[in-house]
Task: inverse folding
């Protein structure tokens, strides 16, 4: 069994993909637009004018696959009740990734030393996705 994250960007998926490629070095593994769906969508599923929006995409971020979509293309993203945790090798990488994710976003907890990490912080990115950035302590997990 496997549990994966599936983020719905309500019309801003392509923008989010470009952001995560730059901020995290994400690699696009797969991208399908609504107009490329081999089956006709159910009535009302694809709003008129949304044919070029992202029906499904997969990003590889480090060793993890994150799935994304434009969903119903309402323009109103609603992320809440969860946080993605980004574990990085050291403090320098934590600084870089935290700053990149925070560009256009909001810092919830500034990066700092904790009892469990030399560098930990929380940030909400420009799309409303919350991230915990954690540098691994010396010697591993």
Result:
């Amino acid at each position: 069994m496997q549990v994966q994250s599936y983020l719905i960007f309500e019309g801003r998926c392509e923008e989010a993909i470009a952001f995560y490629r730059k901020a995290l070095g994400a690699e696009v593994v797969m991208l399908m637009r609504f107009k490329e769906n081999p089956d006709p969508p159910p009535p009302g599923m694809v709003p008129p004018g949304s044919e070029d929006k992202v029906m499904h995409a997969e990003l590889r971020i480090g060793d993890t696959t994150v799935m994304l979509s434009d969903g119903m293309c309402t323009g109103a993203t609603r992320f809440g009740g969860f946080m993605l945790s980004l574990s990085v090798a050291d403090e320098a990488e934590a600084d870089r990734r935290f700053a990149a994710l925070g560009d256009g976003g909001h810092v919830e907890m500034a990066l700092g030393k904790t009892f469990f990490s030399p560098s930990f912080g929380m940030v909400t990115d420009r799309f409303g996705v919350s991230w915990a950035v954690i540098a691994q302590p010396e010697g591993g997990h």
